[in-house]
Recover the amino acids of this structure.
């Protein structure tokens, strides 16, 4: 447990609701392939991480499915926005369910958020039918100067992540 985690405290109902709405909006934008709008939710120091399996890994030592800093994430979004990414042509129909949301505030004022998710993907382009991607997400959020919430860290731990994982040409 990090020192930051030990210093976390719960949040009130109003802040919890705001965080919940942020997660729902982030999911909807990703589901609808509205990647530029999704990207507007992230900070310049963003880390987007999908480890290989569930657990507490060190991305500098352990293999990851994806480990993107802000520049690599921007590049991924540019590729998706071209519409020429064959693995997403036509784009998959997606919907995700989010549950078991837990929110804590660190002593620095950042928000540490955990939730469970299930992403349903109709992979039309590959003819594979319905894909199911269950997992647990960790978000780290902070308040911007304009008062809105933004994420500077997202980690998506797939239940199936330690086995064979097909290419994910979308934002999880």
């Amino acid at each position: 447990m990090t020192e930051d985690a030990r210093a976390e405290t719960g949040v009130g109902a109003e802040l919890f609701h705001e965080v919940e709405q942020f997660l729902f909006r982030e999911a909807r934008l990703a589901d609808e392939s509205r990647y530029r709008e999704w990207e507007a939710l992230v900070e310049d120091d963003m880390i987007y991480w999908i480890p290989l399996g569930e657990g507490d890994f060190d991305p500098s030592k352990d293999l990851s499915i994806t480990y993107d800093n802000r520049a690599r994430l921007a590049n991924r979004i540019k590729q998706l926005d071209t519409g020429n990414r064959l693995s997403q042509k036509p784009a998959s129909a997606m919907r995700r369910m989010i549950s078991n949301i837990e929110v804590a505030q660190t002593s620095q004022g950042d928000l540490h958020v955990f939730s469970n998710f299930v992403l349903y993907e109709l992979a039309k382009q590959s003819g594979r039918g319905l894909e199911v991607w269950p997992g647990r997400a960790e978000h780290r959020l902070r308040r911007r100067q304009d008062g809105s919430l933004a994420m500077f860290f997202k980690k998506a731990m797939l239940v199936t992540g330690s086995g064979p994982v097909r290419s994910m040409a979308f934002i999880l």
